[in-house]
Amino acid sequence: MPADRHRSRTKMTDTRAKIRTFLVDNFLFGPADASLDDDASFLELELVDSTGVIELVSFVEESFGIKVQDNEITRENFDSVARLAHFVESKLPAAVSQPAQS
Questions:
Q1: In the chain, how many H helices and how many E strands?
Q2: Nearest CA among 55, 63, 48 for reference residue 16
Q3: Residue 27: inside a domain, yes or no?
Q4: How far is the C-alpha of 35 from the C-alpha of 49, rounded, in Å?
Q5: Residue 11's closest CA among 69, 90, 65?
Q6: 86 assigned to some structural domain
Q7: Contact 92, 64 (CB under 8 A)
Q8: pLDDT of the chain, 102 residues: tens digit per residue
């Protein structure tokens, strides 16, 4: 696997882990190893309500240094760990999401 692709995959894994930890700590109130599938719908699980979405947006903005626009707060972007991680990665500057080559 090329180094850039490996770094990108590692970065996405780190993003998913950070999101999952936040969700477990703040919404599941379970042990650190509590299971939350990457594709599990927050809405279908009734994990996040409207107030929870606001908390999730604040977490994303503060943790990843990105700005979430109102029109970006959609089910497509905020309804699972995988969707949210993809959204976050797409918002990160290229220099952050893809380290410079030497």
A1: 5, 0
A2: 63
A3: yes
A4: 19
A5: 90
A6: yes
A7: yes
A8: 554 444 455 567 899 999 999 998 898 876 655 678 899 999 998 999 999 999 999 999 999 999 999 999 999 999 999 999 999 999 998 644 444 444
Nearest partner of 22 among 50, 49, 58, judged by Cα: 58
Residue at 39 is within a domain: yes
Residues in the chain, how many? 102
Amino acid identity, residue 96?
V
pLDDT tens digit string along 10-31? 567 899 999 999 998 898 876 6
Domain range spanning residue 75?
3-97
Number of domains in the chain: 1
Written as one letter, the residue type at 70 is D
51 φ, ψ to 5°?
Answer: -70, -35
CATH number at residue 59: 1.10.1200.10
Q: pTM, whole model, 2 decimals?
A: 0.77
Q: For residue 102, tell me if it sits in a domain.
A: no
